[in-house]
Amino acid sequence: MKRALSRKNLWGALPSPLKSLAGGMLRAVPLPWLLGGSFRATLHEARAADRWAPEQIERYQVEKLRWIGTLAQQTPFYREHFAKAGFDPASLRHPHDLRKLPTIDKNTIREQGERLCVESPQGAGVDLVTTGGTGGVPLEFFINADRSAIEYAHLIASWERAGYAPGTPTAIFRGRVVEPDRNGLRHAYDPLLRHHSYSNFHMTDADMGRYLDHVSTIGSCFLHVYPSSAVELARYSQRADRAPLSNVRGLISESEILYPEQRELIEQVFGARVFSCYGHSEKLVLAAGCEHSDDYHVWPTYGYFELLDEDGNSVTTPGQRGEIVGTGFINRVMPFIRYRTGDQATFIGTRCDACGRAHTVLREIRGHRIQEGLVLADGTRVSWTAMNMHDDTFRNVRQFQFYQDTPGESVLRIVVADSYDESDERHMLRKLEEKLAGRLSLRVERVDAIDRTTRGKAVYVDQRIPEAGPVGAVDVAAAELR
């Protein structure tokens, strides 16, 4: 497939010496101008949308839904899908009118393939995206190659809530294998964006020590992280008794679910706030943290968001949980309309009293529950976070992963630190047994490495029990086992 020569692709393909040369020449040009007109227009719109009234949000989303629906109607799948439901996108008067359509999911995308495409997937302006991690079946879909400017503008507008500004030095620990530089440090520098990238595929104690030493030299900065990478750095810092880095203004956490236990550990060790965003590769829903709380606000300009209960009804009661369903405004090659993400969230309201935004407010966003949980002997399904404590349970463990293919039994795979000994294993099992009370038989297996996904994300539970789980299974939060 011919790859589109977008600004991002062209810049990313430049060798490091040319990047350094070009970066020096372009440093005087404001970054938003270098990122292009689409970026600037989207950033302006997103900033404005922060203060839109509900009526303005509704008008905007109706217009966008008509547009994406009319575009999708050109495809064989959506023509049939709309006809069966008696849905005409041109007649849509309210976002709720979209509920006439049945939802779609990963199986729809896999089965229908190119029948969902508005234009040829072989076109120069089209990228193939593959998602999926350990134990999962990858999902492939197509998307326009120029989507990065739109997405990055929304991310910048989100990060500004944490005090970030375009061009702020940023230390990145997110899914990139970085080759050693001339000093043997796995570090790469982008002089245009002022991004310092480090390899989160190489996280030995020696690596992490060098990474943090280098971060301390780049000036006032933010860390852009996967939560799992930040947790590894935090645990290393505790083992090495390192003082917090005084130049880190905050951490921006994305692409993995951030759990309360992780947030508490990271903030404690780094002495800075973790600002979290929720999104996914399909680019349908983006939700960003609030300046005043750990709640998430859904961007109305990124896509149309729904939260559905198990019967497919809209969740509108504060405190009720549901599944995130999205209709994207970015992908004009293969539109996703009413797509079930499998992710869960708690509905809080449609306005944040703390900041005044009239955006949907969410809390406790979680991934697909069967992939995040272990099934105990009595049929209880328990979140792995119940075992992912921020105390000294895993004091000398660099990485861990639970593997399960039988209810009531699990293998705990661990990658140990240099300081690990047999007393650590006894201590770890004793602490876990105190919580599990004999309902899960654990066997510890030391391994040299634990596979990440192709994008460098951690998989804490390699869950192989069929999704239905045992009859009568109940979900138990971490707090209930404490």
Q: Could you tell me the mean pLDDT?
A: 87
How much helix, percentage-wise, in residues?
25-40%
User: In the CATH hierarchy, what is the class of the largest domain?
Assistant: Alpha Beta
Gross geometry: globular
CATH superfamily of the largest domain, please? Answer: ANL, N-terminal domain
- What composes the largest sheet? 12 strands, mixed
Name the poorly predicted regions.
1-5, 468-482
Overall number of domains:
2
The CATH level-2 architecture of the largest domain is identified as: 3-Layer(aba) Sandwich
Q: For the largest sheet, list the strands in their spatial order.
A: 4-5-3-6-7-8-9-10-14-13-12-11
* Helical run tally: 13
Strand content: 15-25%
Category from helices, strands and their pairing: alpha/beta
Assembly annotation: single chain
Q: Give the tally of β-strands.
A: 21
CATH fold title of the largest domain: Rossmann fold
Radius of gyration: 23 Å
Please report the distance between the alpha carbons of the first and last residues.
52 Å
How are the SSEs placed, and which strands pair?
Layout: H1 7-13, H2 16-26, H3 31-34, H4 37-49, H5 54-72, H6 76-85, H7 106-112, E1 126-131, E2 139-144, H8 147-159, E3 170-173, E4 187-190, E5 195-198, H9 205-215, E6 221-225, H10 227-240, E7 248-253, H11 260-270, E8 274-278, E9 287-289, E10 296-298, E11 303-308, E12 321-328, E13 339-349, E14 361-366, H12 369-372, E15 373-375, E16 381-383, E17 397-406, E18 409-416, H13 422-436, E19 441-446, E20 461-463, E21 475-476
Parallel strand pairs: 3-5, 3-6, 6-7, 7-8, 16-21, 17-20, 18-19
Antiparallel strand pairs: 1-2, 4-5, 8-9, 9-10, 10-14, 11-12, 12-13, 13-14, 15-16, 17-18
Helix pairs in contact: 4-8, 10-11
